[in-house]
WD40 repeat domain-containing protein
Amino acid sequence: MTRSSLLERMDSSDFGTKMHESFFSSTILREDYHVLHKTDVAFVILCGNDLTNIIHHGHNSQKTLTVCKFSNNGKFVAFGAKDCGIYIHSIDKDFPLVAKARGHSAPILTFDFGCADDSPDSASFIRSNSINGEALYWSTHAKKQTPLSQRHTRWESQSCIFGWYLEGAHDLCAEENSTCITSCCPLSDRSIVVGDSSGRLRVLPNPARSKDTVYLQFSTHHGKVQKIERCGDTLYTLGSDDSCLCMWKVSSLTWPPTMPPSLYNDHVIIDEKKEDQHLSVSLALATAQMEDLDFSTSHAEKTSSTHKPLRPWMRSIVPPSNYTPQLGPLPDGRLVLERIHGYDGHNAKNNLHYISSGESIVYSVGKTLVRYDEEGDTQHFRSVEGRINCLAVHQERSLCAIGQEDAEQGIVIVALKTMNYMSLCKSTAKGIQCLDFDESGRFLLALGGNRLTIYDVDNEVMIASTLTHATETLDVRFTTAANTLVEVGRNLVRLWFIKGSDMRFEEVDMSTMQNPTTFYTCVGWIDNDLIVGASTGDVIRFAGVTPISKIKAHTSKITNISSVAGGTFAISAANSVKLYDSKCRCIIAVDTEVLGVRHQISSLSWHSDTRKILIGTEGNEVWELSSKDGSNINDGPLVSAHASSPMAISAHPNGTTFATVADDGFLRVWNDENTSLDLAMPSRACAYSPDGRMLAVGFGKPVKDTAKTINGKWVIIDVSGRSYCIIAERRDSRKFIREMKWYSNGDRLAVGSDKIYVYQLASETNPALKVDISLVSTIDMNSPPIHFDFSKDGKYLRVNSEANELMWFEADPAIRISEASLMKDTEWESDTCVFGWNVQGTHHPEGPNVRSLDCYTEDCSSVVTGGDDGVLRMYSYPCTSTRSNYLSYVGHDGAATSVMILKGGSHVISAGDDHAIMIWRHEIDDRLLSERQESSVIDAVDATDICCTALYGCADQIIFPTSGTQNLFQRHNSQIGAVATSSSRQLVASGDSCSDFPSKIWIWDPQTCTEIASLSDSRLRGVSALAFSPDENRLACVSSDENHRIFVWTAINGNWSNAYLSAYSLGGHEKISFVQFTQTQLIAGGRNNLNFWSFVPNLSVSKGVVSTQSQDDTLLCGAMMGEKLITGTSEGSFITWDLTENKIVGEVKAHTSAVTSLRACPEGIVSGSSDGLVTIWVWSSDAFQKKHSFDVGTTSAIHSLDICPHSNGHSTMKILAVSDSTCFEISCVTGRVTKAAKIPTAGEESTC
């Protein structure tokens, strides 16, 4: 029997920098003395009994001391320093310096004292390591020794990490590229523990000479393990990045002599070459004890050398008693964007337009294009990658061009009727500032930075481009004349003339006008005459290139001109709109402040047919006015929102209403009436009472900008009627209110500012609502609270602070509970704390910070988070692993500062820095796939990641991975992971299988073997499945990493050279065996899963519903047969799916063994089984009937199938089947089976 050591973490403590440095440099190796560095270049020696009596203080090096150590015999104390020297002192009176060891070329990392064999009690030698990997030997008199002379030395300690005894440990880390050994400590004569730069501990045999040695692995610190020391049965480890000291219990572990397992990740890896291997009870016990085994680090994360500092809250999380560790599956619901409240009136220009007959409008909010249809009061959306800066609309073609902030994202053309992408114009300029279509809608003018560019929209090519050389350009438009542009800005009005790809301009002489201005702001038209708005409020009319007249339209800067056919035009300034006829006579003037518009106008659109004027304001509102009398057509704004952010959200207990407050000083209640109340002060916290009759609102902001703002004040508003009157108010703090939370029985309210104040409330309803408030307790905090939750019994508060702390308090006595384990089984009324055990998996090491979250803990429980990147992410609840799968939804531009799930889970509300409020419909899919059993057939099918696929090309040629010399497509640098052909067989897609680096997918022509396009993404690691959509404009890819990520690329108008990544999501931890497109969705199925992915408005998933008869089956393959989906199972059955309800409508036993491959054919479907049979099935009378069956002569599974139909299109002529690395061609006429090709096996190079 062999013995090893097992570590069990006992406790951990948070140490600041001072204790951190002290521990590193002040290890007690002798009971009566203790060394402590007083400054960077000095040291003191303390009495070891109480560490208060200074025995001696001295000085040796001119640089920082890095390590110190006593010899066991008490004769020497030595110091290592950053000056690369070792200073050896004698422990006599005054601790004299006896020697200086100099020879290292880098600062000293560690050293050990050693004794000669003939003098076991006398320290005679020193071995030392430097930080650059040097290992040197010395006598205690600083004389350098050779390694050969030290081979029999007995070393008092084993802290040096560079030595022959750790050769295998270094080789093990070298395979992981970026990790290295940082510390070590012997546990016994036979085992040693080493720490590395990734925070892991490994227990290895001592010595560890081979990288293939047996070891145990534990995860502890975040970042480098700087120091390891053992004291009895306790091991102490110190992390340099997390400043955490951990205590470990060391115990012996017995292993069966016939089975030396290596524990890696969550598997016991057994050498399959050994035959007599038996698990013993001790191994099972050992596996169960290893709670800190490294389950959570993927290969990509292991090779990363960067680490985020460990947050304090992560040291305070403890799992509940009944928790079973598991990786988070995809959530059992999805979010669908239903409505957006808000409009971008701050950052975007010319981003509000009437379309069609004037009953619809289009505008932008952050990263989202919105089409609002007044009929039906509905919104339709299209999200883009970057913030939208400007829009251009062509009415006749119903096209909208979107200019984005980031030049790499280009200009997107969207069809307004369907809100689908039409084309993408790649821009080379910085941030698109202005767009305009020409009269035909074929050409698009873009201004980005100081560059003008003209695009051919239909052909997606750039025609001409030039620098403007202008100080500041404010507007640019096509003129009514052919091939002519007009540019206006600071001190300029220019006409540009286009000839081919050449562009030239002529300056318009504005000095002929009386009192010329500096800024010309916008462009419009009166019939064919140009008009230009100026910063003085004037509108200048041109005849050709000559200014001929000027009218005083406003007293302030002209911001927008909206022209229509017939010569009429509308002009807007800061707070007014005027309508003019073709003779420049004012028809109507509207003062928008009189109508209740509180903010200046940023955009303008006039629809002459419906006589309506649309204005967008800097307060992020859209108003619709009548051009007949200037009245407001609606009761208030057509689109409303807060004028500033951040916003706070509170959900009403009725599950349909919610309230928001923001720095603009308004309370808004969102329901059928959308009520607003002017509070006159900025607010960042609000909370509905449990009965919904009252709303608490807290006031203030970090920096007061007006004397009216009273930080720390809070009020209770009666919202039971329509009066919205304040019935109570209080102020106990001088800091702004950050968070508010009611207890469920309504008698207590917690208010957080710099502290947490818990109040007792007593309310009366007759004759009028009245509330008495008394302060119960005050919870003092070192850092302001940002989130907190009441426990269900109301006794406790769970608190997150601004310093990333997680704390617990007794609510009434305000006593902090320092032991996290005491609260591990406490149930909480709400789950809004962003730091906690139940949501720890939402904090990805390299991902954005989580700003807000909410949890739905009923059936199909989930967590929805909002991050700094504005993306909403949805996880299954609880989410305890950073490897948990999630669905992401592109939402806000900037951080998503608030997320709230309405009661009942019907909707999710989010608010962001883009001043938008988004309402997401929470579609909960409670028809879950049941747990399925795995069969041995699946393991055999999944045993290799090598592509075993052969397909027919457009000319009936065979396409397959090969290492031969046939017609080849030779762009792959690794083995091929997947191959797919388009429906016309004119395109082939093939992807790399290697997951060590980002993989590529190649689109190529099967006739000429020439490349058409390449697709890649930094998150794509290995390709396991590919599929074209029926229209050949989309390609779906499944990666072979543990999350089986799903990528969807879209070719605009079939041009794959301009393809872009249109959808992305995690696919789940279960292996995905196949992907299939329908006309409207993507279907992915495999081990224990069948998911239906929809694309509108984002990539979202719903799960297939399995009947009770099929609960134990695993789906291995799938094929579309007309409008039906057919899947093959591990039990040999065909399952027919209804794609409208995503459920099973039929099941039939097809094979005696597993169905491993399916392909649609003219008769119905072709199937392949795990025993090597290929069968053609006819679909007749809603049932399958066997037509032909072929035996390819192998007992291995059929990995892939393809068919070549007869020219009449009614029958199958040939079948291509791959089994046992051999491609067989079957003649359906004669039944003859021939070997067509050999497919490379694992390890062989391959190409297509």
Summary: The chain has five helices and 99 strands. The radius of gyration is 36 Å. The first helix runs from residue 17 to 25.
